[in-house]
Amino acid sequence: MRARLLHRDRDPAWDTAPGPQEDDLTRDLDLGTLYAAMADGDAFLYECARRVMMSPLTDPEEIRYRQDVLADCLRQPETVRELYALATEALAREKRVFGSFVRSPEASLARSLDVLALFLELLQRLRHLADTRAGEFRSAGFRRFFAMLATELDDDCLTRLRGHAERLRFRGGVLVSARPTSGCRGAGYVLREPPHKRGWRDLFTSSGPPAYTYHLPERDEAGARALGELRGRGLDLAADALARSCDHILAFFTALRRELGFCTGCLNLRAVLAARGAPVCRPDPAAPGTPVLTCRGLYDVCLALRGAGPVVGSDVDADGARLLVVTGANEGGKSTFLRAVGLAHLMAQSGMFAAADSFAADPRDQVFTHFRREEDPDMVSGKLDEELARMSGIADRLTARGLVLFNESFAATDEREGAEINRQILRALTEAGVKAVCVTHLYELSHGLYTHRPHGAGTVFLRAERTPDGRRTHRLVEGPPEPTAHGADLYARVFGERPAAPVGAALLDERGTGRPWTGCAPRSRPI
């Protein structure tokens, strides 16, 4: 029996080791907040969410298969939670069945019979759920699951299992055959089916071939041990077969609980977002081969989970573009948008809903982040060394179908060097087919990319929107990069007045081109 709710033709790889980029993804995208909302205080659900989201799907058909399953879960949350509770109960009760401290086939058989009895009870309840609720589900995953239960757990099957379990208790004793060998030793021990129980008609018929019977004396401990050993040899194969059968049913309930655990986490997340009035949508996975990114109202789901008020979303049309360059005002929502893109990709490729009014993208086999880090407190390396080392690690694992999110990368050196490092890396990535989203305040980088447009696959430039009075809307709009991040707005907010530009505000850079002065003049009175 296989649950197969998350994959059409295989089981999820739950025991796969986490990828080396998981720690950076969790920190940079704030995935812990998302997992916590899905878990709702349950450590098992937290782990289910983490493992599924760290194994994104890349086949659009596989994504749609899981989307259909989760759509059924959202339509029938009570049934899904009931199925999850039943699988959880099965595992919890199995753990409470203790066996003997003596390792023997007889002890193993006794424990397996107790486990099988409780599993048969739970399988009967599972069959009842399938019989009464199957018509409420539409997805191929749930239809296959309920059809499997109806076929493999029909009444005849359950009746036969109960009959076998009762016979294996050997209430009338154990019948074992063996052949004698040299030294009067036995070999080839075989467990036999108990003879037919004699009735009153058998009193008038022959009692069968003669049998030789030996009764152990009451205090013959050595004989009792020898007889117990013979009994164990006869029960060995039966005990092993029954233990394997119980392990098979246990594996089914374990897989079912894990897969339904992820579905339950999605139900928990949807309930929290609905309570906050945050919209979600069913993502549209595009066919691989051409970069696609089109969204309406895309927002950072973790920001919505942490905050108390509504979250502003952004609209983006970047189909065909392998590079998105995001610039604009400080505190304008650039980093928030970057996290929203990464989270939406991971959620969409996990078969989940996305935090947007609409979202369409081509699946990427890996998502990497390269965010700015704080100074190394151990002074092992400088900031630029650390950033270059991280980028080298990403390049070693990156494929042509990857997605890399850059947030103020390589700003630890001067603007010209930082711009050149970024430019060379972005060119190499996009020419290889990698999709990249770059948030930067390096005007030399963004202006150079906008002017020369060296990336044949296309580049989209987004800018954090700012009203004429300096207010941030926290939306991104398409537009060319600006030479200032409007830090004067923040200066005015903190100090109550705007900075005065010095005489000759246009400074010359090393190449002799005029650039607006964006610094701050000293205040006329002490702070």
Written description of the protein model:
The structure is a single chain. The strands form four sheets. Strands 8-9-10-6-11-12 form a six-stranded mixed beta sheet, with helices on both faces. Among the domains are: 55-169 and 246-275; 284-498, Rossmann fold, CATH 3.40.50. It is an alpha/beta fold. The chain has helices at residues 22-29, 31-39, 43-53, 60-75, 77-95, 105-133, 140-152, 155-167, 221-275, 301-306, 334-349, 383-397, 415-431, 443-452, 487-495, and strands spanning 175-180, 186-192, 284-285, 293-298, 314-317, 323-328, 358-361, 366-371, 402-407, 435-439, 459-466, 472-478, 506-508, 514-516. The chain has 15 helices and 14 strands. The longest helix is centred in the middle third of the chain and has 55 residues, at 221-275. Helix 2 (31-39) crosses helix 3 and helix 5 (77-95) runs antiparallel to helix 6.
Ordered list of secondary-structure elements with their pairings:
Layout: H1 22-29, H2 31-39, H3 43-53, H4 60-75, H5 77-95, H6 105-133, H7 140-152, H8 155-167, E1 175-180, E2 186-192, H9 221-275, E3 284-285, E4 293-298, H10 301-306, E5 314-317, E6 323-328, H11 334-349, E7 358-361, E8 366-371, H12 383-397, E9 402-407, H13 415-431, E10 435-439, H14 443-452, E11 459-466, E12 472-478, H15 487-495, E13 506-508, E14 514-516
Helix pairs in contact: 2-3, 2-9, 3-9, 5-6, 5-9, 6-7, 6-8, 6-9, 13-14
Q: List the uncertain runs.
A: 502-527
The number of helices is 15
- CATH architectural arrangement of the domain at 284-498: 3-Layer(aba) Sandwich
Q: H/E order of the elements?
A: HHHHHHHHEEHEEHEEHEEHEHEHEEHEE
